[in-house]
Amino acid sequence: MITLPFHHNCDSLVWVASVLSSVLTQLKTEAQELEESNESLKETIKGLKMEKNELRKEKMKLKADK
């Protein structure tokens, strides 16, 4: 627990609480954006893996046709 010297008044504590609340809100927003970005990247990777598998199948078919 953080203790402040007695000379700090209530306004200072309110200001600190306000700043901390703003920082927390910003961090929550950034975390949500990162989660969304992560999901998007996972979907992109999934699509690329499917495409890679299709290309492998096509390559094997072309080799077999030679």
TrEMBL record:
Molecular function via GO: DNA-binding transcription factor activity; protein dimerization activity
Secretion signal span: 1-25
InterPro entries: ILR3-like
GO biological process, any: intracellular iron ion homeostasis
Domain of life: Eukaryota
UniProt KW keywords: Coiled coil, Signal
Coiled coil: 17-65
This protein's name: Uncharacterized protein
Originating species: Zingiber officinale (Ginger)
Lineage: Eukaryota, Viridiplantae, Streptophyta, Embryophyta, Tracheophyta
